[in-house]
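Quick one before lunch.
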Amino acid sequence: MDLAKNKAKIFKSVEEAAEAENNTQGVNVIAVTKYVEAEVAHQLVEVGVRHIGENRVDKFLEKYHALAGQPVTWHLIGSLQRRKVKDVINLVDYFHALDSVKLAKEINKRADHSINCFLQVNLSEEPSKHGFLKNEIEEALLEIAELPNINLVGLMTMAPLKASQAELEALFDETYRLKEDIKAKNIKNMPMTDLSMGMSGDYLVAIKHGATFVRIGTAFFQ
Ligand SMILES: *Cc1c(COP(=O)(O)O)cnc(C)c1O
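Model of the pyridoxal-5'-phosphate complex:
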């Protein structure tokens, strides 16, 4: 495993894909460090990674404390139980898995500042997945708009594991269009400027459809 080499390769492919789409906003690469120890996460920072993501609260806290003082933007990307919100939410720069109104209310209550959140959507309607279904989104937005400590920066989605290329394209495109639709409504505390989608296997497709944050684990560590 050559972290510097993998990092260079991933960042280059991301930049090229963003350029090909005339994406002037840029695409942020989140290194998902759930497979590795804090020491390896630190090495990633040394080779130039600036965004670190973890999907579990305990692992997030471990890395966060081990890398204190490092120039890192911190992402909690996995589902969050309501009882754990108070342990972590004020340390997180971006929370990617806002998947219920109840969770939004708990975050709003525990936050000591406005928290950047992505609304997780399940547009492929997979029963096993977290995230709002299409027909739940409008009402959820109305309720979340009333919570001053939730700053909704965009949508997050995860593609089905076995999706074909065509299915991936359709899902990412639909997510992009939904994000644009919500953005156009100019709802308070909902800038909706970002899209968190794309993992090691599909990040180039996601960038093609407007991803601004890609969450990459495996490709860094092979
Ligand atoms: C693990 C994980 C990723 C990264 O997946 P890879 O396929 O290893 O790149 C992205 N997002 C979430 C929510 C994850 O849990």
